[in-house]
Amino acid sequence: MARLERGVLALSLAGLLGLAGWASWLDGKAWLAQHLIAHAWQTTLEQDAPQRPWPWADTWPVARLT
Could you give the percent of the chain with pLDDT greater than 70? Predict the structure, then answer.
């Protein structure tokens, strides 16, 4: 019985760590995208030409929301 409980506990812990990792990954991507878009906006204003926030982006900032 104790072996089964340890297995369930280990599986639960692995699931929770997986969910926490997924949430951290999404938050990290959102944080990075926000900063890359802000940098692209600044560069667009300085160079007066549209700048993509990352090389594979098919868009560029056209206005700043406040």
Answer: 98
